[in-house]
Amino acid sequence: MGIDAGFDMVPRLSKGVVDRKNWQSFIKIIRNRYTNDDLVEVKPNYIVFKAGEHPLLPFKGHKFLRFSSKISGSHAKGVEEYIDTITRIAKVNFGSRVQYWNEAFDEWGVYDWQEVHNSFESYEQPDEPEIPTSIAQYVFGD
């Protein structure tokens, strides 16, 4: 067992241009912040933080639900700093949608673990092509 901490994006981001642009800006900040960090690796579809349980940030924000890891135990060294920093950056970019939680304080994530694991799996999957049927759908998504 162990203590998990992280944040959930509530509600999740849409595929709309506003959320897409905000997520792209957020990812750019993260990439710039960790450019010279050997424990941060940019993969084709996401960024992996090689500490704790290797939390991930996908390049497509609508696939994202949670950034978290165990923060206790022998493998957790350094991961809490990543979680804290990325949570602060996310709050600046997404405000109240960022729901921080920490099991040490009897706080729990909003999404259940099956939903979270499904979202992780989606990071490697291509999106279905979509053609917006209205300006509103293009701007705001679903």
Measured by DSSP, the beta-strand proportion falls in 15-25%
Residues in helix, %: 25-40%
Give the mean pLDDT: 92
E-strand count: 6
Number of continuous helical runs:
4
Low-confidence stretches: none
Q: Order the strands across the largest sheet as they lie in space.
A: 5-1-6
Structural class: alpha+beta
Largest sheet: 3 strands, antiparallel
Write down the secondary-structure element order.
EHEEEEHEHH
Cα end-to-end separation: 37 Å
User: What sort of overall outline do the alpha carbons produce when their principal axes are compared?
Assistant: globular
Q: Gyration radius, to the nearest Å?
A: 15 Å
Features:
18% strand; 3-stranded antiparallel β-sheet; 6 strands
Please characterize this protein's 3D structure.
By secondary structure, the protein is of the alpha+beta class. It is built from four helices and six strands. It has helices at residues 17-33, 79-94, 113-122, 135-140; strands spanning 4-9, 40-42, 46-49, 56-58, 66-70, 98-102. The strands form two sheets. A three-stranded antiparallel sheet has the order 5-1-6, with helices on one face. A three-stranded antiparallel sheet has the order 2-3-4, with no helix packed on it. Helix 1 (17-33) runs antiparallel to helix 2. The termini are far apart. The model has no long low-confidence stretch (mean pLDDT 92).
Concise account of the structure shown:
The chain has 142 residues and is of the alpha+beta class. Helices cover 35% and strands 18% of the residues.
